């Protein structure tokens, strides 16, 4: 069965939202998405997603920045070797500042790239599966399932006290 | 925290987004004169470009004056914003929550202001792009061994990373505004800026990690950027400049001056927009304690500089410091000492730390004192160097004063635009410090 049905339950409490996710997982529904107005450790724990790979973007970006810093300073001073104040042509102590700054600059830009790519990799929820109150004081649990399971999901959400339940194809 | 206990999640959204309502007459009464002063500053700069750098007060041997003072002053102001938003985030200091957005905005606008001065102080400002390393036919590259070039990289990196940190931190709040505004142009604008944010667990996971890494990057920037700026002076051999104390001295002074500016900005904003429930006396208490710490470091540094000059046995170094305290610029030196060391002393007392009016007045004196500190370091050291035959006096001209005033107006112009277009208090993070909405159900742990 193709999982192309979305069911969204709207809640007002964090603990109720967490319990709802647990119940849905026990019932065999794992294509879940939880909306909240702020990041919450309990929701993060119960969703049990793998650790974010943004950290690899950060690490490799910083390493690239350091390499660029070294390459840039060493190669450009070697290209036109002028002795400045009797210092060596390739003089590492002053270059450390440039290397350090480029490490941070390219590391930060990579982190941004990682954030943008990873948070958009999953298809963003369709408009009907979002409620503007999620940025205010409500929590949402969205389940992606097949047509036959919609009733079961609706029962679970209602039994948990969902204030509103929305349905749509996703 | 009793003021914050009356807040609900919905009220946080309402109060912060209400600040973005149509500009009032009061806002316009501030904005229009600010624009006027920016225009005056621009006129002064164009006059200088047209007539020549001679209209500035530069006289031999003082060829760095008010413009470089302003540059260092504004870069220093920026650092406190990063301290509050990034370093206090890493230390989990909750008292930063309601003020850090304003502090971050202050950082970005201060760096934008500081970035004007390397261009303004040039005799041929149209050649400013020579500072940037670009490939060219003759393979002429910039001098990476020069502290002035380190400055280019440091300040550019700081502007980029601070702007990213500022913007990324605002994405969830911009989404909250998008969800609330009704007018179509504003809705479109906030929709674009929010990058489609929906607040799902997946987005929060990557966001919180990215935010942590940005904070981790911004922290060494606070320490390194103003150290690099201090090395513009310390890497020379001029008495009063060539000292290893400069890096920590400048960083502590930067944080000190920035905290003063944060208080100067937040006190009127708190009053005008009725943010008493958000920016509480506890927040000011925390900031005042940081001011005491940095004021003590700066005061200690003033004393140690004198000791170093005397202990070194160098007649040039001692002569320079004796001149600072007793020479023709002595009045500026003692203004600096009084404003930075004496006036913050009452902050040791809790009653003073929690008195908004007194805190505001002290913050104004801190801003004045720190501006004079940069003036003293730069101008007095240049005024009397090694060779008495080369000593001279510098006083700023009306052009320099006009550009300085214009720079303050430029900063406040951005700030006034910011408080009317972007959320000045962090909506999402404020909710993290409010009581969690729990129904109190008992969970089923059968797995």
Fold and architecture overview:
The complex is a heterodimer of chains A (170) and B (447). With 170 residues, chain A is α+β, with helices and mostly antiparallel strands. Chain A contains five helices and four strands, in the order E-H-E-H-H-H-E-H-E. The model of chain A has no long low-confidence stretch (mean pLDDT 91). Chain B has a single domain, classed as Formate dehydrogenase/DMSO reductase domain (Formate dehydrogenase/DMSO reductase fold). Chain B has 447 residues and is mainly α. In chain B, helix 8 crosses helix 9 and helix 9 runs antiparallel to helix 14.
Provide key terms for this protein.
heterodimer, A: about 170 residues, alpha+beta, Alpha-Beta Plaits, 2 domains, 4-stranded antiparallel beta sheet, about 50% helix, B: about 450 residues, mainly alpha, Formate dehydrogenase/DMSO reductase fold, 16 helices, about 70% helix, globular
Low-confidence stretches of chain A: none
Helix and strand string of chain A, N-terminal first? EHEHHHEHE
What is the annotated CATH architecture of the largest domain in chain A? 2-Layer Sandwich
For the sheet with most strands of chain B, the description reads:
none
| Count, helices of chain A | 5
Assembly state here?
heterodimer
Helix content bin of chain B: 55-70%
The figure for the number of domains of chain A is 2
Number of distinct beta strands of chain A: 4
Set out the fold topology.
The complex is a heterodimer of chains A (170) and B (447).
Chain A: E1 5-11, H1 14-26, E2 32-35, H2 41-47, H3 54-79, H4 92-121, E3 139-145, H5 150-159, E4 164-169
Antiparallel strand pairs in A: 1-3, 1-4, 2-3
Chain B: H1 9-18, H2 25-51, H3 66-90, H4 100-114, H5 117-120, H6 147-180, H7 184-193, H8 201-234, H9 246-272, H10 281-312, H11 315-326, H12 330-342, H13 350-353, H14 356-383, H15 398-421, H16 427-433
């Amino acid at each position: 069965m193709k999982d192309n049905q979305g069911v969204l339950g709207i809640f007002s409490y964090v603990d109720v939202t967490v319990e709802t996710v647990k119940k849905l997982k026990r019932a065999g529904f794992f294509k879940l998405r939880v909306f909240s107005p702020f990041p919450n450790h309990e929701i993060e724990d119960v969703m049990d997603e793998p650790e974010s790979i943004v950290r690899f973007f950060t690490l490799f970006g910083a390493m690239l920045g350091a390499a660029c810093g070294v390459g840039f300073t060493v190669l450009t001073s070697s290209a036109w070797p002028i002795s400045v104040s009797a210092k060596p042509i390739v003089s590492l102590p002053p270059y450390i500042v440039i290397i350090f700054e480029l490490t941070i600059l390219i590391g930060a830009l990579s982190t941004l790239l990682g954030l943008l790519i990873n948070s958009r990799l999953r298809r963003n929820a369709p408009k009907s599966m979002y409620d503007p109150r999620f940025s205010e004081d409500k929590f949402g649990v969205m389940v992606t399932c097949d047509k036959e399971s919609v009733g079961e999901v609706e029962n679970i959400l209602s039994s948990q006290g969902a204030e509103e339940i929305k349905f749509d194809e996703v | 925290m009793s003021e914050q206990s009356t807040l609900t999640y919905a009220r946080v959204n309402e109060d912060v987004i209400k600040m973005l309502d149509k500009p009032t007459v009061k806002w316009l009464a501030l904005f229009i004169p600010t624009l006027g002063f920016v225009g005056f500053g621009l006129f002064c700069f164009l006059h200088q470009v047209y007539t020549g750098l001679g209209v500035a007060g530069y006289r031999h041997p003082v060829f760095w004056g008010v413009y470089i003072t302003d540059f260092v002053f504004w870069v220093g102001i920026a650092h406190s914003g990063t301290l509050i938003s990034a370093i206090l985030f890493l230390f989990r200091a909750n008292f930063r929550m309601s003020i850090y957005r304003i502090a971050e905005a202050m950082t970005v606008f201060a760096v934008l202001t500081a970035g004007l001065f390397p261009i303004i102080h040039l005799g041929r400002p149209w050649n400013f792009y020579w500072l940037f390393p670009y490939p060219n036919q003759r393979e002429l590259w910039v001098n990476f061994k020069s502290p002035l070039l380190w400055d280019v990289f440091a300040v550019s990196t700081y502007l980029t990373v601070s702007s990213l940190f500022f913007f990324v931190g605002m994405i969830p709040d911009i989404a909250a505004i998008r969800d609330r505004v009704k007018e179509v142009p504003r809705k479109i604008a906030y929709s674009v800026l929010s990058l489609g944010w929906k607040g799902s667990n997946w987005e929060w996971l990557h966001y919180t990690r990215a935010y942590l890494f940005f904070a981790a990057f911004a922290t060494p920037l606070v320490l390194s950027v103003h150290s690099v700026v201090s090395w513009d002076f310390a890497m020379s051999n001029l008495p009063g400049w060539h000292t290893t104390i400069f890096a920590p001295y400048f960083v502590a002074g930067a944080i000190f001056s920035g905290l003063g500016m944060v208080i100067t900005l937040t006190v009127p904003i708190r009053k005008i927009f009725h943010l008493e429930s958000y920016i509480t006396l506890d927040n000011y208490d925390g900031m005042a304690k940081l001011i005491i710490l940095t004021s003590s470091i700066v005061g200690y540094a003033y004393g140690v500089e004198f000791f170093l000059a005397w202990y070194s046995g160098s007649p040039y170094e001692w002569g320079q410091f004796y001149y600072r305290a007793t020479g023709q610029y002595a009045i500026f030196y003692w203004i600096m000492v009084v404003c930075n060391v004496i006036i913050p002393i009452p902050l040791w007392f809790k009653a003073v730390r929690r008195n908004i009016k007194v805190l505001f007045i002290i913050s104004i004196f801190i801003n004045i004192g720190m501006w004079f500190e940069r003036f003293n370091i730069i101008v007095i050291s240049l005024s009397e160097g090694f060779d008495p035959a080369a000593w001279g006096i510098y006083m700023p001209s009306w052009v320099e004063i006009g550009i300085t005033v214009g720079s303050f107006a430029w900063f406040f112009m951005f700030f006034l635009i910011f408080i009317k277009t972007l959320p000045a208090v962090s909506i999402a993070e404020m909710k993290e410090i409010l009581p969690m909405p729990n129904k109190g159900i008992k969970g089923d742990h059968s797995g």
